[in-house]
Amino acid sequence: MFIFDCNLLIANMVNRENSQRDARDIELSFRDSPIRSTVLILKFIYGFLTYLVAVIFRRA
Fold first, then answer.
1. Domain limits of the chain?
2. CA dist., res. 53 & res. 60, Å (int)
3. Do residues 15 and 9 make contact, with C-beta atoms less than 8 angstroms apart?
């Protein structure tokens, strides 16, 4: 039972390392793309609109 648990633990660690590597590769390819600036601008606009709505509802 203990050997099985160790094998499962090692398999989980390997899977986690692979998924982190995949996420890093996606992030590196995303960093150079023009989509990134568009997403950042949209996030900024969304945050600003959320702030305005919060201020308006607080005064109402």
1. 2-59
2. 11
3. no
